[in-house]
């Protein structure tokens, strides 16, 4: 049976360190600040934003919340981002996605100051990650790497298969694994012989967004499985992209859903915000 990688416990330990850093910065009058922007009233986005705000409060991070109407224009949102870019109290700007259809998401991301882009989505930050000199790393992939570190997984020479090619998870986590000297294959929902490719992996990172698409019998004996997927079945049960119960019998370590990767995303958002404030102290 695989070891369960407890993302919640690891996240809590990391947040204790983050909170201690915030206290030290606050004593110097440099409390880190995060601005969260929510456009519209999508229930999932609203819940996620609330979780971020609570995490900021618990860590002692100054938090600004900007809730805008669904009908907000692109110009209005860009004007708000411009103000936040110039606000000395704010070290990180997070615009919750998805945005309403009248707003160009790419233009919004590109308007955020790269040095306040704690989500790590700006092309400048993606480019630096690709070049092996990251400024801010996207929070979910960053959290995945922390989980691997905490589990004692050395990626040097390992075969890593990433299933999913999004700019938010798949592509950046592949780059991060490559920087750790892994041999990385990026697959997706249209990859031919996906089962064969997954079966060769020492580490499987599933981020395709399809419930239990990756079957347990595909998993190589002793492989490490990181499941990023959060899917709700017809019975309202939350499941990942991997058939957890079947994979549990083959993997050496595996993240559960929920309680695996999810808690790490917000934790790394806090870490990036604190790091942003620290950089401003440097000459």
Please explain how this structure is put together:
The chain has 283 residues and is an alpha/beta fold. It folds into two domains: 28-113, 3-Layer(aba) Sandwich (Rossmann fold); 139-262, Rossmann fold (3-Layer(aba) Sandwich), CATH 3.40.50. It is 42% helix and 16% strand. It has ten helices and eleven strands. The chain is globular.
Question: What is the mean predicted local confidence, pLDDT?
Answer: 96
Structural domain count: 2
Q: What profile does the largest beta sheet have?
A: 6 strands, parallel
Q: Count of DSSP E strands?
A: 11
CATH fold-level name of the largest domain: Rossmann fold
Distance between the termini: 51 Å
List keywords for this structure.
283 residues; 3-stranded parallel β-sheet; Rossmann fold; 42% helix; globular; single chain; alpha/beta; 6-stranded parallel β-sheet
Summarize the helices and strands and which ones pair or pack:
Blueprint: E1 3-4, H1 7-26, E2 33-39, H2 43-59, E3 62-68, H3 74-86, E4 92-95, H4 105-111, H5 123-130, H6 139-151, E5 159-163, H7 170-179, E6 183-187, H8 194-199, E7 203-206, E8 224-227, E9 231-232, E10 238-239, H9 244-248, E11 253-254, H10 262-281
Parallel strand pairs: 1-11, 2-3, 2-4, 5-6, 5-7, 7-8, 8-11
Antiparallel strand pairs: 9-10
């Amino acid at each position: 049976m695989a070891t369960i990688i407890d993302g919640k416990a690891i996240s809590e330990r990391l947040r204790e360190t983050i909170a201690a850093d915030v206290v030290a910065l606050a004593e110097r009058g440099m409390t880190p600040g995060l601005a969260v922007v929510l456009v519209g009233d999508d229930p999932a986005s609203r819940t996620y934003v609330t979780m971020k705000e609570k995490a900021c409060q618990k860590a002692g991070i100054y938090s600004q919340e900007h809730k805008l109407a669904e009908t907000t224009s692109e110009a209005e949102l860009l004007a708000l981002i411009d103000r936040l870019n110039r606000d000395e109290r704010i070290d990180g700007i997070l615009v919750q996605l998805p945005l309403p259809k009248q707003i160009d998401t790419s233009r919004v991301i590109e308007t955020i100051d790269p040095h306040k882009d704690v989500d790590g989505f700006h092309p400048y930050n993606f480019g630096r990650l690709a070049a092996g000199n990251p400024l801010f790393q996207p929070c979910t992939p960053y959290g995945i790497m922390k989980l691997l570190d905490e589990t004692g997984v050395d990626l040097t020479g390992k075969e890593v298969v990433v299933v999913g090619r999004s700019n938010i998870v798949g592509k950046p986590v592949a780059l991060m694994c490559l920087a750790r000297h892994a041999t990385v294959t990026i697959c997706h929902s249209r990859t031919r012989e996906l089962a064969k490719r997954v079966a060769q992996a020492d580490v499987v990172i599933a981020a395709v967004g399809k419930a239990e698409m990756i079957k347990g019998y595909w998993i190589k004996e002793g492989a490490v499985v990181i499941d990023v997927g959060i899917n709700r079945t017809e019975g309202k049960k939350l499941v990942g992209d991997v058939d957890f119960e079947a994979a549990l019998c083959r993997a050496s370590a595996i993240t559960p859903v929920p309680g695996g990767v999810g808690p790490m995303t917000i934790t790394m958002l806090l870490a990036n915000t604190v790091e942003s404030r620290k950089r401003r102290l440097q000459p």
